[in-house]
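Forgive a beginner's question, but would it be possible to get any protein sequence you like and the tokens describing how it folds?
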Amino acid sequence: MNKETGRTRSRGFTLIEVIIVVGVIIILAAAAVPSFGSTLARMRIQSNASQMVQDLQLVRASAITYQQDLYVYVCTSPAASRTTYYYELFQKDPLTTVPTHYTPMDAPVSGKFVKKVALYNMSFGGPFWSGPTNISPTLTTLDGRQYVVFAFCCGEGSNFRGQPGIVSSTLAPPYTAFSGVVGIPVVDSSSRTWYVTVSPTGQAGSSGVSP
């Protein structure tokens, strides 16, 4: 107590105490940063996969609604172009007996195709098949790039509504039916991988586990 004023002085923190507290805060923050970074990376890769799932669901629903086989192009080569895929909105000459299709390289494609590019420096791996029979996808070359092309069927002929199939290089039916789940890897710059999946019935989903 101060004898002159009669008031008690409050004791402050010493420099050592302040240094200890700051050190503890720094240690806790450093421990949390890797966890936050990993969570953010996972959210980003899931966001890309979820967008592709929504697009595939839209194509399948449109094929059934508008009674047209609609195509999806996933670029597999060169590596620098694996950030891109296209999906078809409607066919060329849909009222003809055997409709033909535009390709993403046809001009103009505005209103016929939607182009999607992976965000956050991610890329799409080549589609692969899991199931009783492994199907080697046919690669279609357009403008110097290679694509795996698959269709969602409208339900005509022997195909049921929404059935997916591999499209040959002629870009015309018949299609090779899926014998198992198709996986499309979504890969980030650190090689983390998430998978977009398409079932033999055409249902799209995503998973962190390879199908």
